[in-house]
Specification:
Radius of gyration: 25 Å
Pfam families: Peptidase_S13
EC number: 3.4.16.4
Family: Belongs to the peptidase S13 family.
Number of helices: 12
Number of domains: 3
Keywords: Carboxypeptidase, Hydrolase, Protease, Signal
Strand content: 15-25%
Helix content: 25-40%
Organism: Nonomuraea diastatica
Structural class: alpha/beta
CATH topology of the largest domain: Beta-lactamase
CATH class of the largest domain: Alpha Beta
Largest sheet: 5 strands, antiparallel
Number of strands: 23
Mean pLDDT: 90
Low-confidence stretches: 1-27, 486-503
Distance between the termini: 15 Å
Length: about 525
């Protein structure tokens, strides 16, 4: 289910109205009431889990109503946030770009049209729209044909200069280069479906009549497919693009249909290929070769496409924890604020916004949290979550956060299989985070007394056994929290199986299990 920006705002304002920081010493009741003493005891118990013995755990809980810090341990320590970084990127984008912001993609001509012949170049210009599908480029090609153009004597120019030419983020691991969640960033890109994983192609395999058939979505000849797979009794297949190439090698055995999302090597070249193919299908012949470059001043617009609004894009971005959206929005913020579509300019926008809202411990290397050098403190995250509650866009942003236990992908998102059938289900709105040895959960929950709480849980450097159930236990306990509970009352720390995705976010487990 996809919601419009307006419906998100309307549905969220009531929740936002119900919806507040400094690091302090851990493991003691910060409020003398029995309820807070019980909460402190229970959270200490949860965090005594043996998996955290050699790990680092930072947890902060704060009342959004009173500003009281109800619990804190290692509140000021710099920890790896993983996708909790997106809390800062998305909020800064809402503030800087506005919820009505749209990405524009256009086709321009640089010459004169005489009859059906365009004497000059045809320019495809992008501004980073991550929601562009192959069908959208096809629609642009149809508009060019509809304008009466049948022959272009010049070149097809791909103008991706809205962003710089740097494709991969700071500190991204070399072995993630072909993974869809670390796809290269360009102002001209395309997604294979409406999860909008820009810069990737879906490669699917099926066994038919004893042979393995390989197909792509969208149908494209951009990738070179080397099919070495064989039909077998089970599906044990590897689909992998070779580093620095367009070659995808398929090996193993196939019994049942299977698919993988694969990052392309160069989004601009990939999109140029899609667009040229679409022009050909619509009877438009470009005589020149495909090149990259900026559209000259005075080029005339032949066709244009606008994306959904940022308010609408926040849903797939935050619910599914889309890394590429985060990086594209980072560069878009840099372009708007400093006329530079770079990581450096965009990250300055986000960090300046965070600091203006009281954040003290912050180190941002990218917009998504894929870098292991990103760093925040749980105290800073709670401070930020408190500060943004007063923003006019908060309602829409709050509703874009994953909601615990809601099975609908575009509602529950990365929390759809967690905390089901507990007081946290339908209550916790929070952002997940996952890297090897790193997990985080930060957001909002309403207590048993109806008191809105803000929390951040950051667990780093554990070696084995996912501790996401520890996050869930804490969130459930916060949903059960009552200031009036008598001391010594039993507390049920209930959690459920995290679901088929296990300890990973849906953004890391792309197939149907998410």
């Amino acid at each position: 289910m996809r919601r419009t920006s307006a419906s998100l705002v309307a549905g969220a304002l009531v929740a936002a109205l119900a919806w507040a920081s400094s690091p302090s010493s851990p493991a003691v009741a910060l409020d003398p009431s029995a309820g807070v003493a019980d909460l402190t005891q229970d959270l200490n118990q949860i965090l005594s889990d043996s998996r955290l013995t050699i790990a680092r755990a930072g947890v902060v809980v704060k009342s959004a109503e009173t500003g009281e810090e109800l619990y804190a341990t290692d509140a000021g320590k710099l920890l790896i946030p993983a996708s909790n970084t997106k809390l800062f990127t998305s909020a800064a984008a809402a503030e800087t770009l506005g919820l009505d912001y749209r990405f524009a993609t256009s086709v321009l001509s640089t010459g004169r049209k005489a009859g059906k012949v365009l004497t000059g170049d045809l320019v495809l210009r992008g501004t980073g729209d991550p929601t562009m599908l192959a069908e959208d480029y096809d629609a642009l090609a149809a508009k060019v044909a509809g304008a009466g153009v049948k022959v272009v004597t010049g070149k097809l120019v791909a103008d991706d200069t809205w962003f710089d030419a740097r494709r991969l983020g700071n500190d991204w691991a070399w072995d993630d280069e072909t993974a869809y969640y670390a796809a290269p960033i360009s102002a001209l890109t395309a997604s294979p479906d409406k999860d909008y994983d820009a810069g990737s192609v879906i490669v699917a395999v099926t066994a038919e009549n004893g042979e393995v058939k390989v197909t792509t979505t969208p149908d494209t000849g951009y990738l070179k497919i080397v099919n070495r797979a064989t039909a077998g009794a089970e599906t044990d297949v590897l689909i992998e693009r070779q580093h620095g190439t367009r070659t995808v090698v398929v090996t193993g055995t196939v019994a049942d249909p299977y698919q993988e999302w694969v990052a392309v090597d160069d989004p601009t070249a990939y999109v140029s290929s899609l667009f040229r193919d679409s022009l050909t299908r619509h009877g438009v012949k470009v005589l020149g070769r495909t090149v990259t470059g900026a559209a000259p001043e005075g080029a005339k617009e032949l066709a244009a496409h606008e994306s959904m609004t940022l308010g609408e894009l926040l849903v797939p971005f935050m619910k599914l924890s889309n890394n590429i959206h985060a990086e594209i929005l980072t560069k878009a913020m840099g372009r708007k604020a400093a006329n530079q579509g770079t990581w450096a300019a965009g990250l300055k926008v986000t960090t300046d916004f965070a600091k203006a809202n009281g954040v003290q411990v912050i180190n941002m290397r990218d917009g998504s949290g894929l870098s292991r050098r990103d760093g925040f403190s749980p105290g800073s995250i709670v401070q930020f979550l408190s500060a943004v509650r007063g923003k006019p866009w908060f309602g829409t942003w709050y509703e874009s956060l994953p909601i615990a236990g809601d099975a609908e992908r575009f509602v529950g998102g990365t929390l759809r299989s967690r905390m089901r059938d507990t007081p946290a289900a339908g209550n916790v709105h929070a952002k997940t985070g996952s890297l090897t040895g790193v997990t985080a959960l930060s957001g909002y929950v309403t207590s048993a007394d109806g008191e809105p709480l803000i929390f951040s849980i950051m667990l780093n450097q554990y070696l084995s056994g996912s501790p996401k159930d520890i996050e869930d236990k804490i969130a459930v306990r916060l949903a059960q929290f009552s200031r009036t509970a008598a001391g010594g009352d039993p507390v049920q720390l209930r959690t459920t199986d995290p679901g088929p995705a296990g300890d990973l976010e849906c953004s890391w487990m792309k197939p149907a299990q998410c």
